[in-house]
Each structure stands twice: as C-alpha cells, then as structure tokens.
Amino acid sequence: MIKIKKFILCGIAVITVCVMVFAFQVIYFGQSAKPEKSDCIIVLGCKVYGSTPSPFLAWRADEGLRLLKEGYGKYLIVSGGKGEGESISEAEAMKKYLISKGVDSSKIILEDKSASTMANLINSKSIMEKKNFKTAIIVSNKYHLKRASLMAADQGIKATYSGVFVKPYKSHEYVGYIREVPALMKYYFLKAYSKMF
Questions:
Q1: What do the Gene Ontology cellular component annotations say (predicted)?
Q2: Per-residue pLDDT at 111
Q3: pLDDT reported for residue 85
Q4: Which of 20, 133, 152, 161 could form an S-S bond across to 33 if both were Cys, CB 3.0 to 4.6 Å?
Q5: pTM recorded for the entire structure
Q6: Can you give the pLDDT at residue 11?
Q7: Strand pairing partners for 140?
C-alpha cells in the first residue's frame, strides 16, 4: 500500500513538473517574442460574431495594422475560414475591419480556407511561395504563439512573432493560457509519436 502511494505521489510530482515546464514555455515565448522586419505579416484567425470580428480577432488585426504602419512588413495575410455561426470568413471579417481603418485593400491578402492553426500556416506558406515572400511576422494572442511557432517551423516558415493580450477580457486570456498547456503537450506528443511510426 505504501509503495502504491509513493508511486501515485511520484506520478503527480512528474505531471506537475511537466505542466510547469510547458506553462513556462507558453508564457515566456509569448512575453519575449519580438517582431523583425519581414516580407509579410500573417494574422491568424479567431472567432467572428456574424460578420463582426470578436475582440480577440480585432486586437490581432490591430496589431497587424500597427506592424504594417511601422514598416515591419509590406503586406498583411489575413488567415481564417468560415466557422460555425459565422456569416463570413475570419479572413474576410479582418479585411473589412482593416479597410475601415484605412488600409489599402491591395496590401491585404486573403487566406479564407483554414479551419485550424496548422491549416492557417500551411495555406499562408503557399501564398508566401506564390508571392516570393521569404519571411513573415505571425500575429496571434501571446498564449498561442509558442505552439504557432512550432507549427510554423514544421512548415519551413521563417518567422518572428508578435502577440496581443486583450486586457478588457483578462479572464478569457487566462483561460487561453490554461487551455494552451495541454494543447502544447498534445502537439509535442503527436509529433514524437509520428516520428516513431
């Protein structure tokens, strides 16, 4: 019985350490990410309410706009398909939002077929290749950047990163951080599993 208790406690300790390590990766990467001048800026999609960008999506689009205005990139690739309950694609919602902010439509490239972060990056990479873009800045919420960076690296995208933290929705952000830890662990596990088999 004592051995079983020790085994359980040891297992809990290992899991706790793993969670802390992955949580640190998520937090540190998001906080330390710095954009560098690139050929394009990829803004990853998020929820649209009908045809209106959610606060998270609006903040991401605003960050893309800031980077564009400050000369970090010449083009914005807005990436995201049409999900359940959305009247238009996330990419289209971002495009309309950015045009309303004064962005020239010729500077916005639509990627409106994706239904996941990986698809965002695969399809954006295809656009980059067609446009002869060599480098990109990837924009998302800070908690999302670490996993996005691994996916981008897997696709051979040379990228730097810029994240947002939506202050009016802190509770949603904290939930995002919590959910991202098991998502990152799952990504590492599946990647390791695929290499084994």
A1: plasma membrane
A2: 98
A3: 86
A4: 161
A5: 0.92
A6: 67
A7: 163
Question: Of how many residues is the chain composed?
Answer: 197
Do 162 and 63 contact (CB within 8 A), yes or no?
yes
How many CB atoms are closer than 10 A to CB 17? 10
What was the pLDDT predicted at 169?
97
Encoding tokens for residue 8?
């359980």
Would you list the domain boundaries of the chain? 2-196
Homologous superfamily of the 2-196 domain (CATH): HUPs (3.40.50.620)
Q: Tell me the average confidence (pLDDT) per consecutive run of 10 residues in the chain, 197 residues long.
A: 73 81 95 98 96 97 98 98 94 98 97 96 98 98 98 97 97 96 92 77
